[in-house]
Amino acid sequence: MKITDARLIICSPDRNFVTLRIDTDEGIYGLGDATLNGRELAVASYLSDHLLPCLIGRDPFQTEDIWQYLYRGAYWRRGPVTMAAIGAVDVALWDIKGKALNTPVYNLLGGQSRQGVMVYSHANGRDLSETVESVQKSIEEGYFAIRAQSGVPGMSGTYGVPKGGKAYEPAERGLPAESLWSTEKYLRFAPNLFEKLRVEIGPEIHLLHDVHHRLTPIEAARLGKALEPYHLFWMEDPVPAELQEGFELIRKHTTTPIAVGEVFNSVWDAHDLIRHQLIDYLRMTIVHGGGITAMKKAADFAAMYHVRTGCHGATDLSPVTLAAALHFGLAIHNFGVQEHMRHTALTDEVFPHQYTFDAGYMHPGTAPGLGVEIDETLAARYPYQRAYLPVARRLDGSITDW
Ligand code: CS2
Ligand code: MG
Question: Quick check: is 388 catalytic?
Fold first, then answer.
């Protein structure tokens, strides 16, 4: 089998997506997701201008050799743009391999290791009571793992809480929106949120929370300690993760489990975090982490240190990535949880898929390959529109981490 063509489908059904399609001389094609929220066209150029010409004529079954060729052959390694591009190629090749062998991709990764993939939903509210209601709605929908994000008293808005009751989508068209952040207000409020949630919903539901890179290690240690009575499933991205040794300080003070890595694009970004057992869940995801080939290696390394996966799965990762993540999560042994931020109905229409949700679990389906398609005619009706993630400033006006 030979690769005969590789091209991008860039569309914006409610939000921007970059999808790679690779065609072969046997009529089988594969899809990969190359979406990097707020920097979509950088990845599109890296693929179209640099990687795709190198694929023509290659054997799509050679996933390992092609991954190494694209990674080592670039000379300039790693980074979110590079690894999202390599990830898109890799996932499309696994899709082709599954279709050619007439088997779902999970069968190529070790087979079905569990009945289903436990997923967590997004619950949020502008204030405590709205957030409690939103968590209760997720429970009614069948989730038993739920991320809770709430507006903070005294702050006009915060991460994870939509404006005006719409579904939460952080990237906004036009220039970057600016938001204000107060660590003091947040640290005073967050423990109250989870105390109230435990009173309202009891101890069984897995509660997760995303700090979104906003604290210093000692502040994160304080928060983790304060949240211990509420037994969170995880506290996510407590600090910006460049300083891996900073997590030693957090670990010294709290047993609240830590999840990190959605902004990582290589296992090297988490090497010390994993081998020193400074985290409990690795959030790196298939699209940004270099594809299935890379994520399988990262998961196997993490398994040696009791670290489980908790792959990122926001709506800025397309249904192609969600499908790939479900195949991956169904097969690997040290699976932890998969994020399930539901795409809009229009996005789902553009990306018909086999995966299903039932009673807190998802399954990728048994179709050969990934079990996801793209309706190119419909996609063409929603052209790309530049959009940016917000920028955050402290109350004194200085830039902080959004
Ligand atoms: C968040 C994301 O899902 C999460 O855990 O951190 O919503 C993140 O903000 C977006 O994916 C950024 O594009
Ligand atoms: Mg996050």
Answer: no
**DSSP state for residue 160 in the 8-state scheme:** T
Residue 194: is its pLDDT beyond 70? yes
Contact assessment for residue 104 and residue 371, using Cβ atoms and an 8 Å cutoff:
yes
Q: How far is CA 135 from CA 120, 149, 305, 362, 376, in A?
A: 11, 10, 32, 19, 36
What's the mean pLDDT in 173-202? 96
Q: Check: CATH 3.40.640.10 for 3-104? A: no
Q: Are 150 and 128 in contact (CB under 8 A)?
A: yes
Active site (annotated) includes residue 69:
no
Residue nearest to atom 1 of ligand 1 (CA): 314
Pocket of ligand 1 (CB under 6 A): 37, 170, 210, 212, 262, 312, 314, 316, 339, 341, 389
Catalytic residue among 209, 212, 340, 353: 212
- 108-368 CATH pick, 3.20.20.70, 3.60.21.10, 3.20.20.120, 3.30.420.240: 3.20.20.120
* Mean pLDDT for the stretch of residues 195-201: 98
Nearest CA to ligand 1 atom 8: 314
> Tokens in use for 371?
């079990």
H/E element, 235: strand 234-236
Can you give the pTM of this predicted structure? 0.98
Structure tokens at 135: 């968590």
Whether the CB-CB separation of 336 and 284 falls below 8 Å is answered with no
